[in-house]
Amino acid sequence: MSAHISFDPLLPWPVVIALAVLTLLPCLLALGTRRRGGLLRLAGFALLVLILAGPRWVEHSARPLPDVALVLVDQSPSMEIGARREMAARALAALRASAGQTDATRLIVAGIPPATSGGTQILPALHQALANIEPDQLAGIIAITDGEITDAAGLPRNAPFSALLTGSGEETDRELRLDNAPSFGLAGQTVPLRLSVFDHGVNDAGTTVPVTVTEDGQTVATVAAVVGQPLSVNLPVRHAGPAVISASAPPLAGEVSVINDQAAFTLTGIHKRLNVLLVSGSPNQGERAWRLLLKSDPAVQLVHFTILRMPGEPLDADPRDIALVPFPVRELFETDITKFDLIILDQFNANDLLPAEYLANIAAYVENGGALLAEVGPEFAGPESLAGSPLGPILPAIPAAPGTVTQEFPPLITPLGARHPVTASFAGAKLAPWGRMEAATPTPGSLVLMTGADDLPLLVLGRAGKGRTGILLSDQLWLWTRGGAHAGPALPLLRGLVHWFLHEPALEAEALTATIAHDRLSIDRRTLSPSYPGDATITDPDGQSRIVPLTQTAPGRYTATLPLKKNTGVWKIGEGGKTAYAVAAPDNAAEYQDLAATASKLRGAAHNIVWLGRDPAPALGPLLTHRHATQITGTASQPLLPPLPALLIALALITAAWWRENGASA
């Protein structure tokens, strides 16, 4: 119980103060001049002012409140290392047991959740927990952590802070850090990769450490890195599409974890602008469609020539007057042919349009890794057919009876085409009809993706040496560009063909790819085989493998998705001799920079530091400061001066002062 005097004025305080000044000041002056009755007058008016102030005697009854101990448990990924999680659980159980032995202390437990960036941060969880705790009851803050706290400098000082560290003492750790990891690069060129090696908890700055850089599991560089100093590596971009790049350093002797001894990322190779040469054998209705389709792809740089006359054909005018751009035959097909990524021959025949040696140059260009697409019309069935030229051996189809077929037919996607990435996107769709095509027989090993009239091959793809070839056995692709009832997937078809010719990974028919997003691994297997390709073998960053079945989601398309427990490292997926890699990058990269348990970041902020790996968990009492907080349960008050008796006494004093002053003067 506690008691004190409070005031409940009968008039507003400014009025009471003004009356006190007006009445007591003259009394003090009279007392200073030793006038008779001055002391009685001062006492009387002082009592009147005191009555107006309304003094009261207030008594409070209260009950003691328990002290509150706030315990913050680190839940960041670094707490999964070794026995840290078990140490934390034992320490928390000991604190709960200690708090349960007395009613004088209440334990509040809150977690320090994983952050998305910036390492482990204690302040957000601390402030959220303190919002529900009375400051007068907070007896102490206890953190169960590995000590890797990035915002310890901001810890409050109004209560003792204790750190229970999940380790046996200061630990060491090696970190390989990617300072600048490129996301994209031009295929065939190099990009700079900057990395650094840091050794935490040990002073070995200047030591040389070998670092191995791999691309999709294949070593591309081995370099010597100086601990604590940045290193630059020129990384080759070997192909278009994604590649998993991993850099790793050997473990540091005695380090706590090897998780951050390696770092990985995905490098996507991109083509520069693709140089496409389009040569039309004669002016035709499809020329404009070809130009529009090819120019609609921003990745394509188009060079187009139309042969308007036969070589040696007599002219009625000077060639300079009728030729805007002379056809640079020698430059294109002798010296500059390798500058093109794809050559398209549009309704081209071998009737001396190009000398045979230039056609042979095209064939050699394809066999050395180039690409050729031929769109043919009635000339393909005639004596000047490309099949009878030096290009014949590399074409994926040869003419067959009855030659040119003139009847309306809807192009159809074959079962093989439904599995091939070039045509799979519009398999099963009703396609607008064409009216003419060339009968042909596919060569061994070629792929028929589309058929036309009488189930004859319409689109055939093949390979020649290191290169790729294709033939469209109709000159009416342009019908699909007219719109209306004739609209068709001309642009998707042509774009798919162009990028397939250029070995774009996304257009490969036999492929195994894997990606990681939102802690889930997704596997995609594409195949031309109609049968099940086989189960996938998944190897995690620790080298442990398991078998995962694939589920068919479309013709020639098999997938699998599974959750990941580890959120960092390189995963390897294998199936049927094919291998894919996927990289899981941690959401909070700073969390994995230094994995060593340490007290260095909490010194100056923590009043007590306990290593749980070598010392028993302390009792709760020594970590807290008793706050003696109470809660008011009742209040009683009564006036110190009963108004009527006090008023009579004051009047009596004032009357006595007047009588004494007047009596003395008489």
Q: What's the end-to-end separation, in Å?
A: 57 Å
How many individual helices? Answer: 11
Parts with pLDDT < 50 across at least 5 consecutive residues: none
What's the CATH H-level homologous superfamily of the largest domain?
Class I glutamine amidotransferase (GATase) domain
CATH class of the largest domain: Alpha Beta
Choose one word for the global shape. elongated
What gyration radius follows from the Cα positions, in whole Å?
45 Å
Structural class: alpha/beta
- Per the CATH scheme, the topology name of the largest domain is Rossmann fold
> In total, how many domains does the architecture comprise?
5
On the 0 to 100 scale, the average pLDDT is 87
Beta-strand residue percentage: 25-35%
Major sheet attributes = 8 strands, mixed
Spatially, the strands of the biggest sheet line up as: 16-15-17-18-24-23-22-20
Structure, explained:
By secondary structure, the protein is an alpha/beta fold. It folds into five domains: 2-63 and 632-665, no CATH class; 66-170 and 597-628, 3-Layer(aba) Sandwich (Rossmann fold); 173-260, Immunoglobulin-like; 274-503, Rossmann fold, CATH 3.40.50.880; 511-584, Sandwich (Immunoglobulin-like), CATH 2.60.40. The chain is 20% helix and 34% strand. The chain has eleven helices and 34 strands. The strands form eight sheets. An eight-stranded mixed beta sheet has the order 16-15-17-18-24-23-22-20. It has a five-stranded parallel beta sheet with strand order 4-3-5-6-33, sandwiched between helices. Helix 1 packs antiparallel against helix 2 (38-53), helix 2 runs antiparallel to helix 11 (643-665) and helix 7 (329-335) runs parallel beside helix 8. The relative contact order is 0.15. The model has no long low-confidence stretch (mean pLDDT 87).
